[in-house]
Amino acid sequence: MEHTLLNGINSKIMQAYLGERTYKKLYWPLFFPLKATMSLKYEALIGSKGNAVAADVVSYNASAPLKTRRVVNKLTGMLQPIMMKRKMETTDIMEYNSLHARADADQKVLLNMVFDDPDACVVGVNTKMEWLTGQILSQGKVTLSKANNAGIITENAIDFRLPTANKEVAASADRHWSATTPTTMTPIADIETICTEAGAAGSKIRYIIMNRTKWQQFRGCDEVQNLIPYALYNGSKVARAPTLEMVNNFLSGEDRPQIILFDTYLTLETEEHVQSSVNPWTTKYVTFLPEMPCGNMLHCKGAEETNPPKQVIQAKKGPILISKYSDVDPVTEFTKGEIYAFPIWVNIDQSWIMNTESHTSF
Predict the structure, then answer these.
(1) pLDDT, tens digit, 9 for 90 and up, residues 296-341
(2) Are residues 185 and 156 part of one domain?
(3) Rounded Cα gap, residues 330 and 90, in angstroms
(4) Residue 250, in any domain of the structure
(5) Do 19 and 140 fall within a single domain?
(6) How is residue 334 annotated by DSSP?
(7) Is there a contact between 311 and 325 (Cβ–Cβ < 8 Å)?
(8) How far apart are CA 203 and CA 224, in angstroms?
(9) Strand, helix or coil at 134?
(10) Is 361 inside a domain boundary?
(11) What is the tens place of the pLDDT at every residue in 8-45?
(12) pLDDT tens digits, one per residue of 58-80
């Protein structure tokens, strides 16, 4: 039997509410769209693509020359639960009962009180997937620490095996992409170098990903402004830093990749409930992708969904499971959001990452 301390709430009502809700658009589905799997374990092949090997011209009645297969790495792991919960304490429940008794007058306040926690859990789970995506795409790896995760802590980084040859640095100290080197940095030349290098390895780079901080440094440098120097204002040419559209139009004309900004901030909360606003993209890195999406956000059902406890009411927003249940002493109502998911970057061997703020170490 479904059970919640909030009168008039059940799975059907909560599902109808979540089904109609729209939330802030996020970046992670652009790079890692959802893909369901039946198992917590995953395996992904990396390194199976590259320049096609040419066949040979042979004589009549000769055997076809044997060609080698590309070396393939296998990325394996477990889909980890991403969870959070909120609670309504005794005083919150008493306030709810008071509002419920005069629901006609306070319907909006009542609904906000009931559904604020399910909304927060949906947003919270999506936010963690956004953070994971930013960390993985910018660094090729992710580390879970006390500063960024209140759950498990990884002793070593979860490494997606970006090839060493695909890890780039600036050519010299004066060519760092930074606010202190606007006259000497050459990001367009660096893009040309990386695209040429990738092409020789069989990868056609189509997208460049950076955050807004790095973009402002990029657009403010002399090289970029000299190549794209003017904007029209009332029919006159006016010198100014070029827009993203102007830069992408220039790059498109050169058959070079388009820049996409990973432009977001989100809030993390530690186990000690200290909150901080963070940019999930590590600013110093710029990532070069051959295609989008570049993998999938693999997900599967957890035990609570396949074997739901009788005392819990449940609803889903996409693959995110929302559960409500109660406790006693003190009387408390909990709302939990969860998904078993993790991003898998399958074309990382065809991607490049540049540390724009160092010429000695990646």
Answers:
(1) 999 999 999 999 888 899 999 999 999 999 888 888 889 999 999 9
(2) no
(3) 7
(4) yes
(5) yes
(6) E
(7) yes
(8) 25
(9) helix
(10) no
(11) 678 888 898 899 999 999 999 999 999 999 988 877 66
(12) 777 777 767 655 555 667 778 88
Q: In this structure, how many other beta carbons lie within 10 angstroms of the beta carbon of residue 172?
A: 13
pLDDT digits (tens, 9 = 90+) for 99-123: 767 666 556 555 665 678 999 999 9
Structurally, the chain folds into a number of domains equal to 2
Evaluate whether 96 touches 113 at the Cβ level (below 8 Å).
yes
Q: Is 92 exposed, middle or buried (0-12, 13-18, 19+ CB in 10 A)?
A: middle
Check residue 317 and give its pLDDT: 97
83 — phi, psi (to 5°)? -135, 155
How do beta strands 320-327 and 258-261 pair?
unpaired
For residue 317, the one-letter residue type is K
DSSP letters, 215-251, are HHHHHTSHHHHHHS-EEEETTEEEE-PPPHHHHHHHH
CA dist 187 and 282 (Å) reads: 18
Q: Which phi and psi angles does 163 have, rounded to 5°?
A: -60, 145
Determine whether 42 is exposed, middle or buried from the number of CB atoms within 10 Å of its CB (0-12, 13-18, 19+): middle
173-210 confidence digits (pLDDT tens): 999 999 999 999 999 999 999 999 999 999 999 999 99
Percent of the chain with pLDDT over 90: 64
Query: What residues are paired with 59 via a beta bridge?
Result: none
- Give residue 182's domain range: 167-261
Contacts by 176-183, CB closer than 8 A, 24 or more apart: 176/356, 176/357, 176/358, 176/359, 177/214, 177/217, 177/218, 177/221, 177/286, 177/356, 177/357, 178/217, 178/356, 178/357, 179/216, 179/217, 179/220, 181/221, 182/217, 182/220, 182/221, 182/222, 183/221, 183/222
Query: In 3D, which of 294, 327, 329 has the Cα closest to residue 311?
Result: 327
Are residues 120 and 15 part of one domain? yes
